[in-house]
């Protein structure tokens, strides 16, 4: 047989690999969207972002099956292409994150919070396939195929296992060179906060959390209501529960509308099943004449499969917000101590 007609020398058409990878990706995206929808039914749409299926099972399956479809028999592993089992899941997951956010309309906050754990889960899926190819050469196809059962198991766990609830506090402090009465005045009422005021931070300047514009108090002492105005039409209330003159101001958060959730992320309600921002307060400590330590604290509860992981983001987001607010009050108190 001549070389021309020997199948040994035939090659795939140009672009075959690209089309195959594209087809694999579309299949994985379809699987991810389907599992996402099933998870919403199993756990409930309000708690969807905190389900075990969404957090771990979907990215793990995408990573595992992405690698398996590229190298179903472990041929590339035996040829020394070990990096494939890390790079392929990473690229697939990044693409799913990007297109999934466009298709599902996910907010930036949700995507930022999910990205680290999704990437790690996808890589874990790829490494699992590598291990199966390496240790079970003859049975690896069957074992890799069985990994598709993981999302089903996760759905069962999601629908039958109650989530634990943790209570957390985030606290920040700042030293202000101003009279106590000036600081006390500004924590009650502050207007016309400009974009130049405050402190640069990752949460608000990079991720895009809104910044405060004003806070206005109606009433005096316990029972008074301070309304905060943030970003584009965001409002929420702080109902005063304790007021010790020039020492302590505490409140319970009340969210009378969905403006905060609407402008940040639909899965992260500040008063929902997954997250509930409950209370907060200021404490003023006089250090010397015209020198005050101002402490701002916020308490919240969360109900997720990974409360410890979620708390890290809570510390970042709320901590950045608190530092920014404290810096605004410091600047106003030190430069305009008698105006408010």
From TrEMBL:
<feature type="transmembrane region" description="Helical">
    <location>
        <begin position="21"/>
        <end position="39"/>
    </location>
</feature>
<feature type="transmembrane region" description="Helical">
    <location>
        <begin position="136"/>
        <end position="157"/>
    </location>
</feature>
<keyword id="KW-0812">Transmembrane</keyword>
<keyword id="KW-0472">Membrane</keyword>
<feature type="transmembrane region" description="Helical">
    <location>
        <begin position="82"/>
        <end position="105"/>
    </location>
</feature>
<feature type="transmembrane region" description="Helical">
    <location>
        <begin position="111"/>
        <end position="129"/>
    </location>
</feature>
<protein>
    <recommendedName>
        <fullName>Polyketide cyclase/dehydrase/lipid transport protein</fullName>
    </recommendedName>
</protein>
<feature type="transmembrane region" description="Helical">
    <location>
        <begin position="45"/>
        <end position="70"/>
    </location>
</feature>
<keyword id="KW-1133">Transmembrane helix</keyword>
């Amino acid at each position: 047989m001549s070389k021309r007609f020997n199948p040994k020398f035939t090659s795939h058409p140009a672009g075959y690999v690209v089309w195959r990878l594209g087809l694999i990706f579309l299949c994985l995206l379809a699987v991810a969207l389907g599992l996402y929808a099933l998870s919403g039914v199993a756990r409930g749409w309000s708690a969807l972002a905190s389900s075990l299926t969404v957090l771990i099972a979907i990215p793990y399956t995408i990573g595992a099956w992405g690698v398996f479809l590229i190298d179903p028999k472990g041929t590339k592993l035996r040829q020394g292409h070990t990096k494939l089992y890390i790079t392929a899941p990473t690229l697939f997951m990044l693409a799913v994150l990007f297109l999934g956010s466009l298709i599902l309309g996910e907010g930036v906050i949700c995507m930022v919070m999910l990205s680290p754990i999704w990437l790690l889960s996808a890589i874990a899926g790829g490494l699992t396939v590598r291990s199966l190819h390496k240790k079970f050469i003859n049975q690896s196809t069957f074992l890799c195929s069985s990994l598709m059962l993981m999302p089903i198991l996760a759905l069962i766990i999601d629908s039958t296992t109650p989530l634990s609830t943790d209570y957390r506090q985030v606290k920040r402090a700042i030293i202000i060179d101003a009279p106590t009465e000036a600081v006390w005045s500004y924590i009650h009422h502050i207007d016309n906060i400009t974009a130049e005021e405050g402190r640069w931070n990752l949460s608000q300047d990079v991720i895009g959390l809104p910044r405060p514009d004003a806070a206005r108090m109606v009433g005096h002492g316990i029972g008074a209501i301070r309304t905060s105005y943030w970003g584009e039409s965001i409002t929420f209330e702080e109902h005063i529960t304790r007021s010790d003159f020039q020492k302590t101001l505490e409140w319970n958060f009340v969210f009378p509308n969905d403006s905060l959730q609407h402008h940040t992320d639909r899965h992260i309600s500040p008063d929902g099943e997954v997250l509930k921002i409950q209370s907060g307060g200021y404490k003023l400590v006089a250090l010397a004449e015209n020198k005050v330590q101002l402490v701002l604290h916020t308490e919240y509860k969360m109900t997720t499969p990974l409360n410890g992981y979620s708390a890290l983001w809570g510390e970042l987001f709320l901590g950045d917000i608190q530092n920014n607010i404290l810096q605004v009050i410091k600047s106003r108190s030190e430069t305009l101590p008698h105006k408010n």
